[in-house]
Amino acid sequence: MKIYHVTEVLGKYVDWSKIPDLRLFEACQRGQIVHAACGALALGAWVRALPEAYSGYVKSFERWFKNNVKRVVIVEQTFVSKSLGFSGRPDMVVELINGLLLLVDLKTPIAESKTFKFQLAAYMYLLNQGGIYPQGAASLRLKAKGSEAIAVRYDDWQNDFNIFLSALNAHRSLIG
After folding, report:
1. pTM of the full predicted structure?
2. Where are the domains of the chain?
């Protein structure tokens, strides 16, 4: 069975047509650089100086991290469900100061996407299969100017996972 990545499956449900190619390329580049820097910070590693266009996002993450996180469980680890035929790479699982184990997905877009909760539900399933059991999941939208990040919790992950499975099955049947 072919293994599809979570974002490959859900990418079909985001309308990229209104975003100019150059802007979309820049957004992808920004996401990769910001994710790498935030992951390194979470692990306590040194982060080299970033271009001004990206440093605010990292400052936004750093602020949230310092105020909320007690310890890091995983960062950017790949999980695979061979039985269902999909894989994913959650950004991080952290233990919050209040003891809650939280799956956190870093986001740099201004607006929340309707696919975020389905992506996180798929990651929750993969984590559970891998023996990691977060009590919650949240997208963390980082701010370009370094202000407070916006965390949005998704608490109905099992229902959202069923919707992801529908998308996965449609993808497998229609795209192949």
Report:
1. 0.93
2. 4-174
